[in-house]
Every structure is written in C-alpha cells, then in structure tokens.
C-alpha cells in the first residue's frame, strides 16, 4: 500500500485534485495496487483554520507519507500578509526546505493534438519534449533579505548564495536524467556577470568528466529564454538555479499549449511532492473551468518516480493523449472544432480512457 498526502490548498486546488485521485483509483483497479489518501490543510486554507500556512500536523502527515499531491496555494485574500507569512512562502518554501526537496523536475511536452493551442507556430513547437531541472533550496529565495531606510531613501537587497555542494548535487541529477533520455544537458547560467554562475559553470565542467556519454553545453539564461521560443526542439534536459528555473519553466508553458498542461515533481528527500506548475487561479475558482490535466500528469510523475510504476504512468499519459485526440478541451486549450468540457468532465474522460486502455 502506498500512502499519499493530499493537499488541495486554495483556489482551484480543491477542484483539480479530485480529478487526479479518480484517475489514480482507476490505476488501483487495473494494477491491483492500493493507495491510501489522507488529506491535510495547507496555504491560505490552513491560515484561515490554524493561523499558519503549514500546520505541524500537515508537515507530519507529509513526512509520514511516501508522496504528496498538492493542488495550489495563495490568492488575493492573503496577499496583504507580510511575505514570510504568505502561503507561497510559508507553505511551499517551508515544505521544500523541511522535506529536503532540492530539485524540481518540470517536463514540457507537446501533445500532438495541442499543436494549434500554442501561440507559437506549429512548425516551431511540434516535437517539443524537454525537461527543466530547477534547484529548489538555494539562491535568492533563501539568501539573506534586508530592507532599511537611509539618509537618501530606502535600500533593499536579496542575497544570492550557492555552495559547491548544492551546485554539484543538482548538476549530478541533471547528468543522470540526461543519460536516461537523449544524453544532452544544457546548463543555464549568467557566468558573464554572476560569480555564483561562474562557480556553477566550473562545477559542471568538472562533473562532465564523469559523464563522457552526455553532451554538456552552457547557455546564458537570456539566450536560453530566446532559444526556448525560437528552437525548443534543440533541448533535452536543462538544469539551472532557483530563480532562473522559476522563470524559464513558466515560459516553457507556451510550448505545451497552456500552463494548465505542465506537471512537476519536487524530489530529493524521502518524500517527493507533485503539483501542477500553474497557480491557484482564484479568478476561475469554483466555476469548473480549471484544466486538471497538469495535476493528472503530476500523478503520472508520482507513479513513475516515487512508486516505480512506469507502465501505469504511461497509461495515464496515453489516456490524456487519447482524450485530447478525441477533441475534448477545457477552456484554456479550446480551439475551433473542439468540444468544451468542464473540470470534472475532463477528469472523468481521462479516468475512462485509463480503464479502457
């Protein structure tokens, strides 16, 4: 039996998480495995109930589970809180740090049926299949932050710090992932300006000697942003520090047709966390408009990475592909000639496709 901590969170979280669970339940019937789902509060919902975004009992639940399925956190209701108390910081960053989740894996894959949903030309995005690996526990987000008033006005700073151990850890994972795919690793940095990036690049070159079967290339982050839009098929695995990864992984959403299609996995500790890349989308919460496919695909990543159920993961991905080929779409990926379905209907369609596949 596999124990899964379920954290719906805020906004559309409580709508999309049940869709992934119904698909996972279809997997239990097909493969004879058992999942135990136990729900906890996190984010704004936890602040409202307990006064903190990550209650001790939720953290304990996560630590005692084999995997975590998270919806989304945050929203305008809590935006007025001091940054350290807001859901995005007090829940997500604290979870990553508390569970030792140092690496975020974000695949960007274009399902053929969605080639017309991307704002980019079809001939540019067709065949896109890349993976962005983002360092999660270092850099600007965790360095010293300070703001103070001076005689000439206010000054504020965020400190960008990385140790060689942190850099080597994420780069080594990048080499290993590239070795499992098409054996090309793009290390993204800003070594012409940042001293941390120079340490990053030197560490990558040193590690490359251990992986002679993997092609290593270096690319400045600004050029990488352009190349992702210009020629995305050139990439296999991209590895980068925290801030660069946060920005470029969202940019990659246009390659898949919608940010509602991007899953993610945060790994490194005993328990891994799986969540869609998109946010809580409070503007459409409660309207059944949300796309649950990123959450469902995150569940597929859970099967692949945490539970080593490769075929089951492929079953879910193939089911999503069949549903899209049949022309079913949520609002964010709707195009002429396709059929609009709501959040629950999309979940039911994928579940049915898994059962029939």
TrEMBL record:
Chief localisation class: cytoplasm
Reaction catalysed by this chain? (2R,3S)-3-isopropylmalate + NAD(+) = 4-methyl-2-oxopentanoate + CO2 + NADH
Any idea where the Isopropylmalate dehydrogenase-like domain is?
A: 3-350
For the site labelled Important for catalysis, the residues are 141, 190
Instruction: List the GO biological process terms.
Output: L-leucine biosynthetic process
The UniProt record gives the binding positions of substrate as 96, 106, 134, 222
Partners and quaternary state? Homodimer.
Please report which protein family the annotation says this sequence is part of: Belongs to the isocitrate and isopropylmalate dehydrogenases family. LeuB type 1 subfamily.
According to UniProt, the name of this protein is: 3-isopropylmalate dehydrogenase
Species of origin: Thermanaeromonas toyohensis ToBE
Lineage summary: Bacteria, Bacillati, Bacillota, Clostridia, Neomoorellales
